Amino acid sequence: MQVDVLNAKELKKAAPVFGQLSFDNHEQVVFCNDKDTGLKAIIGIHNTVLGPALGGTRMWNYSSEWEALNDVLRLSRGMTFKSAITGLNLGGGKAVIIGDAKKDKTPELMRKFGEYVHSLGGKYITAEDVGMETSDMDTVREVTPYVSGISESKGGSGNPSPITAYGVYMGMKAAAKYKFGSDNLEGKSVMVQGIGHVGETLVDYLTKEGAKVYISDINMERLEAIKKQYGAIIFEGSDVYAAEVDIYAPCALGATVNDQTIDRLKAKIIAGAANNQLADELVHGKQLQERGIVYAPDFLINAGGIINVYAELEKYGKEEIMRKTENIYNTTLEILQAAEKNDMTTHFAALKIAQQRIDDRKKQNLK
Fold first, then answer.
1. Fewer CB in a 10 Å sphere around the end CB: N or C, the chain?
2. What is the pLDDT of residues 240-287, one digit of tens each?
């Protein structure tokens, strides 16, 4: 009797969603397609135990639909744990739009995307992410109330990037306190990889404290502008991961800590704004632990943005936003200490706390 064995590519075709390694019991995955506007989008809803799934929309020129699906699955899962560990009554969701934000984005496309969001009846609330601006969220708001991060002039909380950067800064200082015995970053060398809205604000915070800031980005014009404004140093080397710095801050796309880069890392701390920085949470988290590199869990320290947009739903002001974001410092320090005490990776220690909160709420809901 002949037994057919499927190779990896064929397996993906046989189970295109449930067979994805990034699929983690997601509640719902919605594929959105509109010929007239050219919209091709995927909305991933990972978990709604704690509340509606809130997460930004990313527009990116993905190389394939597989890449887009993998991204939305990983990102939406991360949002679940981000909200849980931050103490917010929100679930995890995310959306990706396939296309070049500079060329393909139109008001018509954004409104059509908003219609798909609206069709979910509030189970998913969208917000700003890579390739999006606050004005885009204003456009989405024209067709659905299920959007946050709209302009302050329209009653929203505005661009969440500065608050995200502040949370990362707090997490970085906590990691420095744990690793170096002091959270003073004056004189410390920091590599900021990716200088978009969040990366730029982080550079500002670090520069003001007296850190030696190196910057890396695919946009040379942007690098020159940031260098001129903040006095940051453009990294001229060929390998950003092998740079001799104290802290590596990935603030672009995820999975930069992977099989190819992890052995080259010279930094003593990893603390950045990018989502899903570990290509493989189990393998790379353990390798960082073994090498003595302190990893500040991304879904914890980059939670400032969701704290900011959550304020729109809960109607609290800037002072409370900053207080909640500043508390990322305390939570990060507690998790780093707990990981050491229990001999586990920092990522797993954070994940454990987040999952416990979800499990507890699930039990309450069943009563």
1. N
2. 999 999 999 999 988 999 999 999 999 999 999 999 999 999 999 999
> Annotated active-site positions, please?
94
Rg (CA), the chain: 20
pTM (predicted TM-score) = 0.89
Alpha-carbon distances of 347 from 237, 296, 363, rounded to whole Å: 30, 8, 24
What residues have CB less than 8 Å from 236, skipping those under 6 apart? none
**CB 341, CB 33: distance < 8 Å:** no
Torsion of CA 312, 313, 316, 319, to 10 degrees: -50
- How far apart are the C-alpha atoms of 153 and 70, rounded to whole Å? 35
Q: Say if CB 195 and CB 225 are below 8 A apart.
A: no
> How many CA atoms does the CB half-sphere of 299 hold within 13 Å?
29
d(CA 50, CA 48): 6
Orientation of helix 346-366 relative to helix 328-341, angle to 10°: 110
